[in-house]
Amino acid sequence: MSTTNYIKRLPDHVANQIAAGEVVQRPASVVKELLENSIDAGADQITLVVKNAGKTLIQVIDNGSGMGDADARLCFARHATSKITQADDLFQLNTKGFRGEALASIAAIAHVSLKTKTASSAQGIHLVMEGSACTLEAPIVVNNGTTVTVKNLFYNIPARRNFLKGDHIELKHIIEEFQRLALAHHAIAFKLVHNDTDLFHLLASNRRQRIVGILGVKTNEKLVPVDEVTEIVTVEGFVLKPEFAKKSRGDQYFFVNDRFIRSPYLNHAISAAFDGLIKPGYHPGYILYLYVAPQTIDINIHPTKTEIKFEEEKSIYALLRATIKHGLGQFNIAPVIDFDRDATLETPYAYAQKPGSLPTIDVDAAFNPFADSESKPYKDQGYRRDKSASWTSLYVGLKAEEAFHSFEVESEEVTGQLFDAFEETPEKVSFQIKNKYVITSLKHGMIVVHQHLAHRRILYERFLKRITLHESASQQKLFPLEMGLNAPQRLSAAQIKESMESMGFRYEVTAQGITLEALPLGMPEEEAQEIILELLDNENQQAPEEGFSQIDAMARTLAKHMAIKSGQVLAPQAQEHLINELFACKEPSMSPENRPTFVTMEANDFDKKFN
Known about the structure:
eight-stranded mixed beta sheet; 21% strand; Ribosomal Protein S8, Chain: A, domain 1; Heat Shock Protein 90; Ribosomal Protein S5, domain 2
């Protein structure tokens, strides 16, 4: 009886392409693998060069240990690694890469060039790989270390290349991977060049300087140090002050044994530590470094190695929350409330070293309150009383009955109506409740308008109209404002410059940030920086595609900040203007976030209350 064999061994180049689908998802995946190899090689200077967001070129240059000829040839083989030799080594990992698939996977879907040399070798070796096949092997004169050049990513998988996003989004992912590794290794000098422009040039420094170098100069004033050593875990790093919490999770970095991870469980511990210090819906920022024994964690549970399993998970949760609370309290960030303390009994700092003195009593024995003002020996000459102020002079020349007739007795006037003050007037009357709601009458009831949400709808449609008709209105600043931005923010500022100008902003992108020259008409100047930073951070987090969605998000943000706030007193004319403007909108009933802007109440609703 004949049988048909269905199972076949895949060719190496097909197996490598399948493995590449797991290892290399986008250019940022290549950047991560190559940078981690340079770190594991002991390099203290690493340069990353990319072109067209990595689609055309990704090059990593380091001064690490390099490789000999045999290692250089073997590093492109599948499952070849210098990091582990047996299965037990997976639970004692102190390195980044260990799978032995990175270079093999990258070489299967790109043109790869490798130049490497060890310190003990007289010359290095140059290898060129195309689709897993070696097309060049030759000696070369090169500096100690390794240079890996990756060109034409996904050249032989066009469908995969078509799934890549725009350059702006892909570059954002590259910067994220670069920042994570740079934050984890502050003793290494990193440099990032994109399209011949330096985005980062980070010198070897301490941890705080590295954080400031990546997240921006103004980050320094936001940081609260955290430090705790226990038998289970060592916690180091910084949390951001509560007032700098954001609605996005952009400034949240967890490192375990200098490896970036994502952990919703530990993130919840930090949120619990900030409970009561930040508004609902906002998230605290942090850059935290946890160090545990390698055998107590498993980092091989996810292909990207960003999720790990802790052996003492609950204990680490409790310790992390307590450490954050202690750090916030130690630096007087968390408020201390003592209901038994009397503030009037506290001694001011100025009196700390001042000797006490007994009070003195000064009595004027000659004081006579009934004596004439001229003969009165007042010590306080600041008070004078006119002689004509004597009470007897008030009734000189009046008859007794005339004196009493001059007084009127207060009485209530009897009228035929109970509420004269609330008589209906021909003009429509509006008024505020709690400086939050504007109420006015309708033909069969009344309408209650939420002033903040209503104004957001008005401004939102106004901004969209200006953009559509290219009628942006700006107010020129007398003195241009220099705003320092980090690299992702500068990229976003350049990317959305045209859209920002259509809103009314005018600025120039510089090497350190932007020079702000004009603001949208009506924008408070003191809020301009906060609004611009939120617009740029939203662009970094969401990175919407070109078109209406980007403009829509920007219009929402501007409307939110520039709308009148709840608690703001409005004059009657302003109340009427707000209502008229609202009902002139295309969608007056809903705010840009789909919350109702007003509610109506019929007269029948009131009648039911009195039945």
